[in-house]
Amino acid sequence: MRFDEAYSGNVFIAAHPTYEDAQVVIYGMPMDFTVSFRPGSRFGPKSIREVSILLEEYSPYLDRELTEVKYFDAGDIPLPFGNPEKSVNMIGEYVAKILKDGKFPLGLGGEHLVTWPVIREVYKKYPNMVLIHIDAHADLRTDYEGELYSHATPIRKAVELIGGGNVYQFGIRSGTKEEFAFARQNLNFYPFEVLEPLKKVIPTIKDRPVYLTIDIDVIDPSAAPGTGTLDSGGTSPKELLSAIHEMARSRLQIVGTDIVEVAPVLDSSDQTSILASKLVREILLGFIR
């Protein structure tokens, strides 16, 4: 776990050189050991960093520049390949250190299972937290073909930990009949759409700490083909960006976030990684003041 020196590989554009006085820590979770279709998201963090050089440091949406925020790129957590349980524990230990030091964790995945240990650590610090989950898939299975550690299970684990009344799902358009029934009965469930229902929810959670997890496959495959489990009929990049800006302008108390399931090997044009990189920029400038 490296916090005392700058990452020696590619870093996110304009990253701050030192951990100590950084407000935000960007870290990668290169894991795709439990995916149910196509692997490749373990290369997502590296790709998001590499394409960030294409970004302007200025956001015309928010009228801010990246130089206004101190963020440190800690590189990727050295996860043991093929061992999801140990990897989950290592991610949790890593994020616990970031939170203990009073810094904002910004994770890059990796399959969506990587979000589970982060939620667990954030909940320890903020027991009244809210989880906002933006995704194509419900991720509410108790297991996937007998495997408890699966990218189909992280939100169900979160519900069991923090309670379904504290979980808000947006954009969901894929899952089993049982998952949809469970979500409608137990969660704050807004399938198929993101921006409009989010606008209605924000005033009700404005005074609570919020963790935000974004699965890139919430975007329609026409605009983000580089992900392992494609599902047509998704939202647009413009709508997702607008959702981030809505949360930023409403001054939601976002205490951490992640972007997961970017699989660059499945997108020869890198448009999925480029979109994720832009989302990182807007998160940095929208949520860190």
UniProtKB/TrEMBL annotation:
EC number annotated for this UniProt entry: 3.5.3.11
CDD domains, alphabetized: Agmatinase-like_2
Keyword Isomerase: no
Catalytic activity field: agmatine + H2O = urea + putrescine
Membrane-crossing residue ranges in chain numbering: none
Residue numbers binding Mn(2+): H112, D135, H137, D139, D215, D217
Gene3D superfamilies: Ureohydrolase domain (3.40.800.10)
Name this polypeptide is given: Agmatinase
Taxonomic placement: Bacteria, Bacillati, Bacillota, Bacilli, Bacillales
